[in-house]
């Protein structure tokens, strides 16, 4: 297993980080908005976001005074391929999944509904 894959699985091991990823599936979010539903400090959330960023699962960027988080779904590709190799999961067609999400969220595939800046 590559170091990158180990880092991804370590990041996914925590339920708080998995919940953050699920939240970011819908749209980019400001760090303060990510922290809102959790009963922990902003500093604790920032540590979780740092783990997810180092694993390549999310990216963070400063937009004015606000730091935004964005899901990086391609980071899960290597983990998905590894699990498929063991027959643990069915292969996922990421293009079809993107089209499904776009239809469910009412947008066009590839356009995203995230905040642009």
Textual characterization of the structure:
The model is unreliable at 109-117 (pLDDT under 50). It is built from six helices and three strands, in the order H-H-E-H-H-E-E-H-H. The chain has helices spanning 3-12, 15-24, 31-35, 42-54, 77-85, 94-105; strands at 29-30, 58-63, 66-71.
Index terms:
single chain; mainly alpha; 6 helices; globular; disordered C terminus
Provide a short characterization of the protein structure:
The chain is mainly alpha-helical and 117 residues long. 50% of the residues lie in helices and 12% in strands.
List the SSEs and their pairings.
Layout: H1 3-12, H2 15-24, E1 29-30, H3 31-35, H4 42-54, E2 58-63, E3 66-71, H5 77-85, H6 94-105
Antiparallel strand pairs: 1-3, 2-3
Helix pairs in contact: 1-4
Radius of gyration from the CA trace?
A: 15 Å
H and E order:
HHEHHEEHH
Helix/sheet category: mainly alpha
Strand content: 5-15%
Mean pLDDT metric:
84
Tell me how many strands there are: 3
């Amino acid at each position: 297993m590559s170091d990158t894959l180990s880092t991804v699985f370590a990041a996914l091991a925590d339920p708080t980080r998995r919940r953050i990823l699920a939240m970011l599936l819908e749209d980019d979010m400001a760090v303060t908005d990510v922290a809102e539903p959790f009963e922990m400090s902003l500093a604790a959330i920032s540590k979780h976001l740092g783990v997810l960023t180092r694993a390549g699962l999310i990216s963070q960027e400063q937009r004015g005074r606000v730091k935004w988080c964005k899901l990086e779904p391609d980071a899960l590709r290597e983990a998905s391929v590894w699990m498929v190799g063991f027959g643990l999961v069915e292969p996922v067609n990421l293009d079809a999944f993107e089209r499904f999400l776009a239809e469910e969220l009412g947008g066009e595939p590839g356009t995203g509904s995230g905040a642009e800046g």
